[in-house]
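Field reference: sequence -> structure
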Amino acid sequence: MNKKISLGIAIGLMALVAAVTFIITYNYSLNVFNSKVKSVSEKESIYTKLSEIDTYVRANYINEIDEELLNTSIMNGYTAGLNDQFAKYYSAEEYAQKTQKESGVDIGLGFSYEKEESGYIKITEITSGSSSETAGLLVGDVITAINNTDVIAYEGGYDEAVALLNCEEGTKVKLHVKRTNLEGVSEFFAVEVVSEKTEIISVTGRMIDNIAYIKISTFNEKTPDQFSSVLNELIGKGAEMLIFDVRDNLGGLTDSLQSTLDQLLDDGDIVTAHYKNSSEVIIKTTEATQVRMPMVVIVNGNTASCAELFAFALRDESNAQIVGTKSYGKGVLQKTHKLSGGAAIKITVATLQTKNSGNYNGVGITPNFEVAIPADVELALLTEEQQLESDTQLIKAIEVVSTIQ
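Structure field:
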Protein backbone atom coordinates (compact mmCIF):
# COMPACT_ATOMS: atom_id res chain seq x y z
CA MET A 1 0.00 0.00 0.00
CA ASN A 2 1.54 3.35 -1.12
CA LYS A 3 1.74 6.19 1.32
CA LYS A 4 1.16 9.63 -0.16
CA ILE A 5 2.94 12.70 1.19
CA SER A 6 0.85 15.81 1.41
CA LEU A 7 1.85 18.89 -0.55
CA GLY A 8 2.45 20.80 2.69
CA ILE A 9 4.86 18.19 4.02
CA ALA A 10 6.73 18.07 0.70
CA ILE A 11 7.11 21.84 0.68
CA GLY A 12 8.29 21.69 4.29
CA LEU A 13 10.94 19.07 3.47
CA MET A 14 12.15 21.10 0.52
CA ALA A 15 12.44 24.16 2.72
CA LEU A 16 14.37 22.18 5.32
CA VAL A 17 16.84 20.87 2.71
CA ALA A 18 17.27 24.37 1.34
CA ALA A 19 17.88 25.72 4.84
CA VAL A 20 20.50 23.04 5.63
CA THR A 21 22.21 23.63 2.27
CA PHE A 22 22.25 27.37 2.93
CA ILE A 23 23.73 26.89 6.41
CA ILE A 24 26.47 24.56 5.11
CA THR A 25 27.28 26.87 2.21
CA TYR A 26 27.21 29.91 4.48
CA ASN A 27 29.53 28.32 7.05
CA TYR A 28 31.96 27.19 4.33
CA SER A 29 31.95 30.62 2.71
CA LEU A 30 32.39 32.27 6.11
CA ASN A 31 35.40 30.06 6.90
CA VAL A 32 36.95 30.84 3.53
CA PHE A 33 36.26 34.54 4.03
CA ASN A 34 37.67 34.52 7.56
CA SER A 35 40.83 32.70 6.41
CA LYS A 36 41.35 35.24 3.63
CA VAL A 37 40.71 38.13 6.01
CA LYS A 38 43.27 36.64 8.39
CA SER A 39 45.76 36.27 5.54
CA VAL A 40 45.17 39.86 4.40
CA SER A 41 45.49 41.09 7.99
CA GLU A 42 48.75 39.22 8.50
CA LYS A 43 50.18 40.57 5.25
CA GLU A 44 49.08 44.09 6.15
CA SER A 45 50.79 43.68 9.51
CA ILE A 46 54.03 42.58 7.82
CA TYR A 47 53.97 45.49 5.37
CA THR A 48 53.20 47.91 8.20
CA LYS A 49 56.10 46.61 10.25
CA LEU A 50 58.46 46.80 7.28
CA SER A 51 57.33 50.36 6.60
CA GLU A 52 57.84 51.23 10.26
CA ILE A 53 61.39 49.85 10.20
CA ASP A 54 62.17 51.68 6.97
CA THR A 55 60.83 54.98 8.30
CA TYR A 56 62.87 54.70 11.51
CA VAL A 57 66.08 53.72 9.67
CA ARG A 58 65.84 56.54 7.15
CA ALA A 59 65.30 59.05 9.93
CA ASN A 60 68.19 57.86 12.13
CA TYR A 61 70.74 55.79 10.18
CA ILE A 62 74.00 57.75 9.89
CA ASN A 63 75.30 56.07 6.70
CA GLU A 64 74.03 56.32 3.15
CA ILE A 65 71.61 53.56 2.12
CA ASP A 66 72.40 51.56 -1.00
CA GLU A 67 68.84 51.22 -2.32
CA GLU A 68 69.67 48.43 -4.77
CA LEU A 69 71.48 46.42 -2.10
CA LEU A 70 68.63 46.99 0.36
CA ASN A 71 65.95 45.81 -2.09
CA THR A 72 67.98 42.79 -3.16
CA SER A 73 68.55 41.84 0.48
CA ILE A 74 64.80 42.02 1.18
CA MET A 75 64.12 39.66 -1.73
CA ASN A 76 66.92 37.34 -0.60
CA GLY A 77 65.40 37.37 2.87
CA TYR A 78 62.10 36.13 1.46
CA THR A 79 63.69 33.19 -0.34
CA ALA A 80 65.77 32.38 2.75
CA GLY A 81 62.54 32.20 4.75
CA LEU A 82 61.20 29.43 2.50
CA ASN A 83 63.65 26.93 4.00
CA ASP A 84 64.41 25.81 0.44
CA GLN A 85 68.16 25.34 0.01
CA PHE A 86 67.81 25.73 -3.76
CA ALA A 87 65.61 28.84 -3.74
CA LYS A 88 67.27 31.99 -5.01
CA TYR A 89 66.44 35.56 -5.98
CA TYR A 90 68.23 36.87 -9.07
CA SER A 91 68.68 40.54 -9.76
CA ALA A 92 68.12 41.55 -13.39
CA GLU A 93 71.88 41.40 -14.00
CA GLU A 94 72.26 38.01 -12.30
CA TYR A 95 69.32 36.55 -14.23
CA ALA A 96 70.76 37.78 -17.52
CA GLN A 97 74.07 36.10 -16.66
CA LYS A 98 72.26 32.88 -15.72
CA THR A 99 70.33 32.67 -18.99
CA GLN A 100 73.49 33.57 -20.92
CA LYS A 101 75.36 30.69 -19.30
CA GLU A 102 72.51 28.23 -19.88
CA SER A 103 72.51 29.15 -23.57
CA GLY A 104 75.95 27.57 -23.84
CA VAL A 105 77.62 30.81 -24.85
CA ASP A 106 79.75 32.73 -22.37
CA ILE A 107 80.81 36.38 -22.36
CA GLY A 108 83.86 36.85 -20.22
CA LEU A 109 87.58 36.44 -19.82
CA GLY A 110 87.42 32.69 -20.30
CA PHE A 111 88.23 31.19 -16.93
CA SER A 112 86.59 30.09 -13.69
CA TYR A 113 88.11 30.90 -10.33
CA GLU A 114 87.91 30.58 -6.57
CA LYS A 115 89.33 32.44 -3.58
CA GLU A 116 92.72 31.19 -2.48
CA GLU A 117 93.64 31.00 1.22
CA SER A 118 95.94 33.99 0.73
CA GLY A 119 92.99 36.08 -0.47
CA TYR A 120 94.10 36.06 -4.11
CA ILE A 121 92.22 34.57 -7.09
CA LYS A 122 93.02 31.01 -8.14
CA ILE A 123 92.12 29.88 -11.67
CA THR A 124 90.22 26.57 -11.58
CA GLU A 125 89.20 26.13 -15.23
CA ILE A 126 90.12 27.59 -18.62
CA THR A 127 87.53 27.86 -21.40
CA SER A 128 88.76 26.25 -24.58
CA GLY A 129 89.30 28.79 -27.37
CA SER A 130 89.10 31.79 -25.03
CA SER A 131 91.52 34.72 -24.87
CA SER A 132 92.77 33.36 -21.54
CA GLU A 133 93.84 30.13 -23.22
CA THR A 134 95.45 32.14 -26.04
CA ALA A 135 97.29 34.24 -23.45
CA GLY A 136 98.73 31.06 -21.95
CA LEU A 137 96.92 31.04 -18.60
CA LEU A 138 96.74 27.66 -16.87
CA VAL A 139 94.62 25.99 -14.20
CA GLY A 140 96.34 26.63 -10.86
CA ASP A 141 97.63 30.09 -11.79
CA VAL A 142 97.01 32.71 -9.11
CA ILE A 143 95.93 36.26 -10.00
CA THR A 144 97.61 38.68 -7.61
CA ALA A 145 96.67 42.00 -9.23
CA ILE A 146 94.10 43.36 -11.68
CA ASN A 147 94.80 46.46 -13.77
CA ASN A 148 98.00 47.10 -11.77
CA THR A 149 96.19 47.07 -8.39
CA ASP A 150 96.87 44.28 -5.89
CA VAL A 151 93.74 42.18 -5.34
CA ILE A 152 93.96 42.60 -1.55
CA ALA A 153 94.54 46.36 -1.88
CA TYR A 154 91.08 47.05 -3.33
CA GLU A 155 88.88 48.90 -0.84
CA GLY A 156 86.17 46.25 -1.19
CA GLY A 157 88.76 43.47 -1.06
CA TYR A 158 88.29 40.24 -2.96
CA ASP A 159 84.65 40.95 -3.94
CA GLU A 160 85.51 44.27 -5.56
CA ALA A 161 88.46 42.73 -7.37
CA VAL A 162 86.53 39.80 -8.90
CA ALA A 163 83.75 42.18 -9.97
CA LEU A 164 86.28 43.55 -12.48
CA LEU A 165 86.45 40.08 -14.06
CA ASN A 166 82.75 40.17 -14.94
CA CYS A 167 82.97 42.74 -17.69
CA GLU A 168 81.27 43.54 -20.99
CA GLU A 169 82.35 42.06 -24.30
CA GLY A 170 85.43 43.79 -25.70
CA THR A 171 86.79 44.96 -22.33
CA LYS A 172 90.55 44.48 -21.87
CA VAL A 173 91.83 43.47 -18.43
CA LYS A 174 95.45 43.30 -17.31
CA LEU A 175 96.24 40.42 -14.96
CA HIS A 176 99.34 39.92 -12.82
CA VAL A 177 99.85 36.19 -12.34
CA LYS A 178 101.88 33.93 -10.06
CA ARG A 179 102.63 30.43 -11.37
CA THR A 180 104.24 27.79 -9.16
CA ASN A 181 105.81 24.69 -10.74
CA LEU A 182 106.00 21.17 -9.31
CA GLU A 183 109.33 22.00 -7.60
CA GLY A 184 107.66 24.86 -5.71
CA VAL A 185 109.41 27.60 -7.67
CA SER A 186 107.20 30.59 -8.53
CA GLU A 187 107.39 32.91 -11.49
CA PHE A 188 105.51 36.18 -11.92
CA PHE A 189 104.27 37.69 -15.18
CA ALA A 190 101.52 39.92 -16.58
CA VAL A 191 99.09 39.22 -19.43
CA GLU A 192 96.25 41.13 -21.05
CA VAL A 193 93.01 39.24 -21.73
CA VAL A 194 89.86 40.38 -23.50
CA SER A 195 86.26 39.71 -22.52
CA GLU A 196 84.69 37.98 -25.50
CA LYS A 197 81.89 35.68 -26.55
CA THR A 198 82.86 32.00 -26.64
CA GLU A 199 80.91 28.75 -26.86
CA ILE A 200 81.08 26.85 -23.58
CA ILE A 201 82.61 23.45 -24.24
CA SER A 202 80.58 21.14 -22.03
CA VAL A 203 81.51 17.85 -23.73
CA THR A 204 85.01 16.59 -24.49
CA GLY A 205 86.27 13.12 -25.39
CA ARG A 206 89.18 10.98 -26.41
CA MET A 207 90.05 7.38 -27.17
CA ILE A 208 91.68 5.20 -24.52
CA ASP A 209 92.61 2.11 -26.56
CA ASN A 210 89.20 0.94 -27.87
CA ILE A 211 87.24 2.85 -25.19
CA ALA A 212 85.50 6.17 -25.82
CA TYR A 213 86.03 8.38 -22.76
CA ILE A 214 83.51 11.27 -22.75
CA LYS A 215 83.49 14.03 -20.12
CA ILE A 216 80.26 16.06 -19.63
CA SER A 217 80.75 19.12 -17.41
CA THR A 218 77.19 20.53 -17.54
CA PHE A 219 73.91 20.29 -19.48
CA ASN A 220 73.29 23.54 -21.36
CA GLU A 221 71.64 24.28 -24.72
CA LYS A 222 74.81 23.40 -26.64
CA THR A 223 75.47 20.09 -24.85
CA PRO A 224 73.36 17.74 -27.04
CA ASP A 225 75.03 18.88 -30.29
CA GLN A 226 78.49 18.73 -28.73
CA PHE A 227 77.72 15.27 -27.31
CA SER A 228 76.56 14.02 -30.71
CA SER A 229 79.70 15.32 -32.39
CA VAL A 230 82.07 13.77 -29.83
CA LEU A 231 80.19 10.45 -29.61
CA ASN A 232 80.01 9.95 -33.37
CA GLU A 233 83.64 10.94 -33.84
CA LEU A 234 84.85 8.38 -31.30
CA ILE A 235 82.57 5.62 -32.62
CA GLY A 236 83.99 6.42 -36.04
CA LYS A 237 87.46 5.86 -34.62
CA GLY A 238 86.50 2.36 -33.55
CA ALA A 239 85.16 2.75 -30.01
CA GLU A 240 83.71 -0.50 -28.66
CA MET A 241 83.02 0.63 -25.08
CA LEU A 242 81.90 3.87 -23.43
CA ILE A 243 82.94 5.66 -20.24
CA PHE A 244 80.96 8.77 -19.33
CA ASP A 245 82.48 11.09 -16.72
CA VAL A 246 79.97 13.35 -14.93
CA ARG A 247 82.09 14.11 -11.88
CA ASP A 248 81.62 17.69 -10.63
CA ASN A 249 78.68 18.10 -13.05
CA LEU A 250 76.08 20.00 -11.02
CA GLY A 251 73.28 19.51 -13.57
CA GLY A 252 71.64 22.01 -15.88
CA LEU A 253 68.67 21.95 -18.25
CA THR A 254 66.33 18.93 -18.32
CA ASP A 255 65.60 19.52 -22.03
CA SER A 256 69.33 19.26 -22.70
CA LEU A 257 69.54 16.04 -20.71
CA GLN A 258 66.61 14.55 -22.62
CA SER A 259 68.18 15.38 -26.00
CA THR A 260 71.46 13.84 -24.83
CA LEU A 261 69.83 10.63 -23.60
CA ASP A 262 67.88 10.45 -26.87
CA GLN A 263 71.17 9.59 -28.56
CA LEU A 264 71.78 6.61 -26.29
CA LEU A 265 68.46 5.02 -25.30
CA ASP A 266 65.35 3.42 -26.78
CA ASP A 267 62.11 5.38 -26.54
CA GLY A 268 60.41 5.44 -23.13
CA ASP A 269 59.54 7.46 -20.03
CA ILE A 270 62.65 8.16 -17.96
CA VAL A 271 61.80 10.71 -15.23
CA THR A 272 58.52 11.91 -13.72
CA ALA A 273 58.12 15.18 -11.80
CA HIS A 274 55.59 15.25 -8.97
CA TYR A 275 54.31 18.81 -8.52
CA LYS A 276 52.09 20.25 -5.79
CA ASN A 277 48.86 19.17 -7.48
CA SER A 278 49.90 17.06 -10.47
CA SER A 279 52.51 14.80 -12.06
CA GLU A 280 54.20 14.98 -15.45
CA VAL A 281 56.81 13.00 -17.38
CA ILE A 282 59.55 15.55 -17.99
CA ILE A 283 62.23 13.34 -19.57
CA LYS A 284 61.03 11.02 -22.31
CA THR A 285 63.36 9.55 -24.90
CA THR A 286 61.95 9.17 -28.39
CA GLU A 287 64.62 7.54 -30.55
CA ALA A 288 63.96 4.00 -31.74
CA THR A 289 67.63 2.97 -31.73
CA GLN A 290 69.89 2.37 -28.75
CA VAL A 291 73.67 2.45 -28.50
CA ARG A 292 74.43 -1.09 -27.45
CA MET A 293 77.91 -0.99 -25.99
CA PRO A 294 79.27 -1.72 -22.52
CA MET A 295 78.92 1.49 -20.48
CA VAL A 296 80.33 2.89 -17.24
CA VAL A 297 79.46 6.23 -15.62
CA ILE A 298 81.89 7.90 -13.19
CA VAL A 299 80.29 10.00 -10.42
CA ASN A 300 81.36 11.79 -7.23
CA GLY A 301 79.90 13.90 -4.44
CA ASN A 302 79.54 16.88 -6.79
CA THR A 303 77.51 14.94 -9.35
CA ALA A 304 74.02 16.40 -8.96
CA SER A 305 70.58 16.92 -10.50
CA CYS A 306 70.58 16.23 -14.27
CA ALA A 307 73.98 14.55 -14.04
CA GLU A 308 72.56 12.09 -11.49
CA LEU A 309 69.55 11.49 -13.75
CA PHE A 310 71.95 10.77 -16.62
CA ALA A 311 73.68 8.08 -14.53
CA PHE A 312 70.37 6.63 -13.27
CA ALA A 313 68.93 6.47 -16.80
CA LEU A 314 71.93 4.61 -18.22
CA ARG A 315 71.98 2.20 -15.30
CA ASP A 316 68.21 1.58 -15.48
CA GLU A 317 67.93 1.33 -19.26
CA SER A 318 71.34 0.10 -20.47
CA ASN A 319 72.71 -1.74 -17.41
CA ALA A 320 75.57 0.76 -17.14
CA GLN A 321 77.85 0.27 -14.15
CA ILE A 322 78.54 3.19 -11.80
CA VAL A 323 82.05 3.88 -10.49
CA GLY A 324 83.21 6.51 -7.98
CA THR A 325 81.74 7.88 -4.77
CA LYS A 326 78.14 8.53 -3.74
CA SER A 327 76.56 11.41 -5.68
CA TYR A 328 75.03 14.57 -4.20
CA GLY A 329 71.39 13.46 -4.05
CA LYS A 330 69.46 16.36 -5.62
CA GLY A 331 66.16 14.74 -6.59
CA VAL A 332 64.04 17.88 -6.74
CA LEU A 333 63.18 20.22 -9.60
CA GLN A 334 63.41 24.01 -9.57
CA LYS A 335 61.57 26.50 -11.75
CA THR A 336 62.82 30.01 -12.42
CA HIS A 337 60.07 32.62 -12.75
CA LYS A 338 60.89 35.94 -14.38
CA LEU A 339 59.69 39.02 -12.49
CA SER A 340 58.96 42.53 -13.63
CA GLY A 341 62.06 44.61 -14.32
CA GLY A 342 64.10 41.60 -15.45
CA ALA A 343 64.68 40.02 -12.04
CA ALA A 344 63.69 36.41 -11.31
CA ILE A 345 63.04 33.96 -8.50
CA LYS A 346 63.86 30.25 -8.42
CA ILE A 347 62.02 27.83 -6.12
CA THR A 348 61.63 24.07 -5.79
CA VAL A 349 58.39 22.98 -7.49
CA ALA A 350 58.57 19.18 -7.72
CA THR A 351 60.22 15.96 -6.58
CA LEU A 352 61.74 13.68 -9.22
CA GLN A 353 61.01 9.99 -9.66
CA THR A 354 63.25 7.87 -11.88
CA LYS A 355 61.67 5.01 -13.80
CA ASN A 356 63.25 2.16 -11.86
CA SER A 357 65.30 3.70 -9.05
CA GLY A 358 62.60 5.91 -7.51
CA ASN A 359 63.32 9.19 -5.75
CA TYR A 360 66.93 9.81 -4.81
CA ASN A 361 66.66 13.18 -3.04
CA GLY A 362 69.03 13.27 -0.09
CA VAL A 363 70.21 9.76 -0.98
CA GLY A 364 72.17 10.01 -4.22
CA ILE A 365 73.59 7.19 -6.31
CA THR A 366 75.52 4.46 -4.56
CA PRO A 367 78.12 3.28 -7.08
CA ASN A 368 78.42 -0.38 -8.03
CA PHE A 369 82.14 0.10 -7.43
CA GLU A 370 83.04 2.64 -4.74
CA VAL A 371 86.44 4.18 -5.39
CA ALA A 372 87.81 7.39 -3.87
CA ILE A 373 90.42 9.77 -5.24
CA PRO A 374 93.56 10.04 -3.03
CA ALA A 375 93.60 13.28 -1.04
CA ASP A 376 96.87 14.42 -2.60
CA VAL A 377 95.58 14.10 -6.18
CA GLU A 378 94.07 17.20 -7.83
CA LEU A 379 92.34 15.96 -10.98
CA ALA A 380 92.12 19.38 -12.66
CA LEU A 381 95.91 19.60 -12.74
CA LEU A 382 96.53 16.16 -14.27
CA THR A 383 97.48 15.67 -17.89
CA GLU A 384 95.84 12.86 -19.88
CA GLU A 385 98.86 10.64 -19.26
CA GLN A 386 98.88 11.42 -15.53
CA GLN A 387 95.16 10.59 -15.32
CA LEU A 388 95.87 7.04 -16.38
CA GLU A 389 98.42 6.80 -13.56
CA SER A 390 96.73 8.70 -10.70
CA ASP A 391 92.97 8.93 -11.39
CA THR A 392 91.89 5.85 -9.44
CA GLN A 393 88.23 6.23 -10.47
CA LEU A 394 89.04 6.35 -14.19
CA ILE A 395 91.44 3.43 -13.80
CA LYS A 396 88.66 1.40 -12.15
CA ALA A 397 86.14 2.45 -14.82
CA ILE A 398 88.46 1.16 -17.56
CA GLU A 399 88.83 -2.14 -15.69
CA VAL A 400 85.06 -2.51 -15.17
CA VAL A 401 83.92 -1.57 -18.71
CA SER A 402 86.43 -4.04 -20.14
CA THR A 403 84.79 -6.92 -18.25
CA ILE A 404 81.15 -6.16 -19.18
CA GLN A 405 79.74 -8.72 -21.59
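Note: Residues 176 and 190 are 4 Å apart (CA to CA).
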